[in-house]
Structure formats: structure tokens, C-alpha cells
Write a structure and sequence with these properties.
This protein has 498 residues and is an alpha/beta fold. Helices cover 51% and strands 13% of the residues. It contains 18 helices and 16 strands. It has a nine-stranded mixed β-sheet with strand order 1-9-8-10-2-13-14-3-15, sandwiched between helices. The protein has a three-stranded antiparallel β-sheet with strand order 5-6-7. The protein has a two-stranded parallel ribbon with strand order 4-16.
Length: 498
């Protein structure tokens, strides 16, 4: 009995590994970029492991009672390893082509059939070895269970804080620094789809300096943002379960992110107040000692479960199991349901961060306001035809929303007494990563059309509006996105009188 329970537990841990892996070991980095405890999510994963383990144990117990159990056992030997293999493809260290997956699975089934047909004694030895391996998976299950429990006990850093700021005179320089995540130059300006109208981006371009050949500094936000803040090339990051933000500098050594040496730390050293509204990166924990005001949020479904912080416990138990079953019997339905779930979470992120960004522009007295907006970053969250948040949107829809939000920002800034003294920086951290999104749920027919089959252009948008600027300027020379860091550093120095 104990052996069979151990086998069931081990089977459940392997079958469900793609669901909970982001809560374990170093992979937990992604899931811990949230401002709320993961207790509900972790317990849901444990419940799924219990449910799958019990179903497997009961089902095999019933099958053992059947007269045809010897034959059924060989069917299970042939089918279970391929099923576990296919289920865990997205946690493999490298992508495996579909043709190779099919070939490997067919080869395994053929080997089992051949051994049973012609080499029965060898087949029995293989079956016994497989049974022992499955039992041994219980050790793996124990380790994974312990790590999930650890995640359930994890507590995040602060989500928000604010220190008093004395109101500054209207003539004091101000910097509003807006990062639109995944804002690509080509789709926004150079080769905009004819169906898309972006009046606010066009208006800002007519009153700003635009850089048309910007070289990105990283492919991912997690590298680009710390690189911009530090002015040093960050090639990898890890946010630990002890809420430490570790960065790897230029593929060399690891160190804890030093907020004092960042642009926010530089501002504090020069008496320049800062307000941060951010997404995905744990801004308030990272910059707690140097920023004046901070709020960050992340409602996206970050783990591959999929689960979500704002979903109920029962939803987080049921939905991953439903997706798993659909992946085997109705893959297209699983694809659509997974996309809708991810988009639902991203809608919540965009709504929350946008609301706080506009409120900060309206009320904050900070000298620097840094806004990290999770748009037009996929997955889809907006329908430009109805002007409403909706699942099923495209990157073009995300650009439409970004333009709409930019218009609201410009309108709010124009009301501020310090607008005439305000420098406005608007840029992307990287461009639209078509190669990354195209194979994932949520890629739409419109995405395929406007990207011309997934063509990638690496250039992010960079626009800088100087106080009182009313004419358009263009810099066509190759420019690294690191220029934004240098520009902000110079701005801080000029305000401080250096």
C-alpha cells in the first residue's frame, strides 16, 4: 500500500510540475514578483497534487481488480512516460521540435511493443525498473512539496509607501519619466498599421526630440530596467525568497542590487525627491531606502499553473486541472482558455497601474515621477473598437490604449503649475518581441498581419520633450537606450547645480 501511495504521489508531482515549478528553487524568482503573499496559490497547487495523486491511486487500484490487468499494465507502461514527457515540454531547458517529440514517443511505444512481443523477460525487468523509478519519484515529490510550503510562508516587501514632500515652486525643474513596456518604434511610428490612429503619440512627437535608431540594452524588462537604473549592463537577475534583488553584471559576477548607486539613489543624494509607480519589478522593496514615494503592482498570472492572486482558492485549484485535461483531449480549447486567463490578469495589472499613474501625476509633488506602464505589453487587454478592456486584443489594440493613456497623462500634466518647467521622457524598455509572443497563447490574427508573419524590429521608442519645446527634432544616428540613463543622471546633476 505504501509503495502504491508513493508511486501516486510521485506521479502527481511529475505530471503537475509545469504548474508549480515557478514556486520552486531559483525559478520562483518570477512568481515572487508580486506584492501579496502566495499562500492561496501555493495551497491550491498542493491541493492539485493531492487530488491527482488520489485519482491515480484509486484508478490503478480499480484496474488491478480487472482480469485484463496484465494487458492494461503494459498499455500504461507504453503511454505514461510519453504523457509525462509531453506534459513537461515547457519546463525543458531547450525547445524540442514537435517532430522530435512525436518521433521519441513513437519510438518508446514501439520499443515496449517489441519487448512484450519478442523479449518478454526483458520487458518484465524494464517494467519492474520503471515501477521502482516511479516509487523513487516520491523523494522528488517530498522536495517539491517542501518548496511549495516554503512559498506559502513567503511574505513580500512593501507594496507602497510615501514620505512627505514640501510643495516646490512652479519654476523648479521637474522630470516625468514614462516607460511604456514593449513600446516598439516601428509599429508606433515608422510602419504603423493603417487601421491605427495614435494622435497623442503624434502630438508629443511634434513637440519632442525623437531617436529613430535606438539600440536596445536587453531583451527582457527584468534586465533592461536595472540596467537603466544602474547604468551598468545587467545580464541576469534573481529576486529571492528573502526579498533580495540580485543582479549579474556583464555576465560576470553576482551582487545585490545597490539602490544607493541607482538613479533613484543619486536623486536622493542630491536632494531630488522621487515618486515611483511600477509593475512587475518589486520597486518598493528594491528602492525602499532611497525613493520618496512608491507604489507597485502585478496582477499578471506569472506562473505556468496557471493561477492568479485575485482568483479564489477553488478557481486556482480547478483551472490548472482543467487546462491539463484539455491539453490532452482538446488542445485548441486549452490554448484559448490559457490565453483568456493570462489576459484577464494583465487587464487587472494595466488598470491598477494606470489608475495610480494618473493619480500620481495629479497629486505628487515629487521632482522625478517614474511610471512603468504594463502597456502595450502583451497579452491582449484592450479592444480599440469598443474602447474597453477585453480579452482577445492585439498589439495594435495595446498601442491604442497606450496612446489613450498618454493623452490623459498629457492633459493632467498641462494642469500642473510646474508643467512649463517639466522635462518629459517617454520610451520603451524594448520593442515588440514578436518571436517570443508568436508561439504563445494570445497571439492573434491581427498580430500576425501587422508583424508580417512575426518580423522583429529591435528598436524601442525614445522621445524627450524639453520644457516649452514646440518643434520636432529627430536624431537618426545610432543611439543606445543607455542614453536614457545618462540623460536622467545629467538632469539630476543640473537640478542639484553640479
Amino acid at each position: 500500500m505504501m509503495k502504491r501511495l508513493a508511486q501516486a504521489w510521485g506521479f502527481a508531482s511529475i505530471l503537475l510540475l509545469p504548474d508549480y515549478i515557478d514556486l520552486t528553487s531559483q525559478a520562483g524568482d518570477a512568481r515572487m514578483r508580486v506584492p501579496s503573499p502566495l499562500t492561496k496559490v501555493a495551497l491550491a497547487h498542493l491541493a492539485d497534487m493531492l487530488i491527482v495523486g488520489l485519482v491515480f491511486a484509486l484508478l490503478t487500484a480499480l484496474l488491478r481488480r480487472l482480469k485484463r490487468w496484465p494487458a492494461i499494465r503494459w498499455v500504461l507502461v507504453a503511454l505514461l512516460p510519453p504523457m509525462l514527457f509531453v506534459r513537461n515540454l515547457n519546463v525543458m531547458p531547450t525547445d524540442i521540435p514537435n517532430a522530435a517529440v512525436i518521433a521519441l514517443n513513437m519510438a518508446w511505444i514501439a520499443i515496449v511493443v517489441l519487448l512484450v512481443w519478442r523479449f518478454k523477460a526483458l520487458a518484465i525487468k524494464m517494467r519492474k525498473a520503471g515501477s521502482a523509478i516511479l516509487t523513487g519519484f516520491a523523494v522528488f515529490a517530498m522536495v517539491m512539496t517542501a518548496q511549495i510550503v516554503r512559498s506559502a510562508l513567503w511574505r513580500p516587501g512593501p507594496q507602497a509607501f510615501a514620505h512627505p514632500i514640501v510643495q516646490a515652486p512652479a519654476t523648479r525643474p521637474r522630470l516625468v519619466w514614462v516607460l511604456f513596456d514593449e513600446l516598439g518604434y516601428k509599429q508606433t511610428f515608422e510602419a504603423r498599421d493603417p487601421s491605427l490612429n495614435l494622435p497623442n503619440f503624434d502630438r508629443l512627437r511634434s513637440e519632442s526630440t525623437i531617436y529613430t535608431d535606438v539600440t536596445p540594452i536587453a531583451y527582457r524588462t527584468t534586465r533592461a530596467v536595472p540596467t537603466l537604473m544602474l547604468g551598468r549592463a545587467v545580464t541576469d537577475v534573481e529576486y529571492t525568497n528573502s526579498n533580495k534583488y540580485l543582479v549579474q553584471i556583464e555576465n560576470n559576477h553576482w551582487e545585490q542590487f545597490n539602490a544607493e548607486q541607482s538613479l533613484i539613489g543619486l536623486a536622493k543624494q542630491h536632494g531630488v525627491t522621487t515618486s515611483i509607480i511600477g509593475w512587475y519589478i518589486a520597486y518598493c522593496g528594491v528602492f525602499e531606502q532611497v525613493a520618496t514615494e512608491c507604489y507597485w503592482s502585478n496582477d499578471d498570472a506569472q506562473d505556468r499553473g496557471p493561477t492568479m492572486l485575485d482568483a479564489s482558492f477553488l478557481q486556482n485549484v480547478w483551472f490548472p486541472l482543467r487546462i491539463m485535461v484539455e491539453q490532452f483531449i482538446w488542445p485548441s480549447r486549452a490554448w484559448a482558455d490559457d490565453a483568456a486567463w493570462n489576459e484577464r490578469g494583465h487587464i487587472a495589472s494595466v488598470q491598477d497601474v494606470s489608475r495610480h499613474a494618473l493619480a500620481t501625476l495629479a497629486t505628487s509633488q515629487a521632482d522625478i515621477i517614474f511610471l512603468h506602464i504594463p502597456a502595450p505589453h502583451p497579452p491582449g487587454f484592450w479592444d480599440r473598437r469598443t474602447q474597453t478592456f477585453a480579452i482577445g486584443g492585439s498589439y495594435a489594440d495595446g498601442l491604442d490604449y497606450s496612446d489613450r493613456l498618454l493623452g490623459q497623462m498629457l492633459a493632467e500634466l498641462a494642469k500642473q503649475p510646474r508643467w512649463a518647467s517639466t522635462t518629459l521622457v517617454v520610451h520603451g524598455d524594448h520593442s515588440w518581441r514578436t518571436a517570443m509572443w508568436r508561439p504563445l497563447p494570445g497571439w492573434s490574427a491581427e498580430d500576425e498581419r501587422i508583424s508580417h508573419g512575426g518580423e522583429w524590429d529591435p528598436r524601442p521608442v525614445v522621445m524627450i520633450h524639453s520644457p516649452g519645446q514646440q518643434d520636432a527634432k529627430t536624431v537618426s544616428a545610432p543611439t543606445s537606450l543607455m542614453y536614457v540613463h545618462d540623460f536622467v543622471a545629467r538632469w539630476i546633476g543640473s537640478v542639484a547645480g553640479d
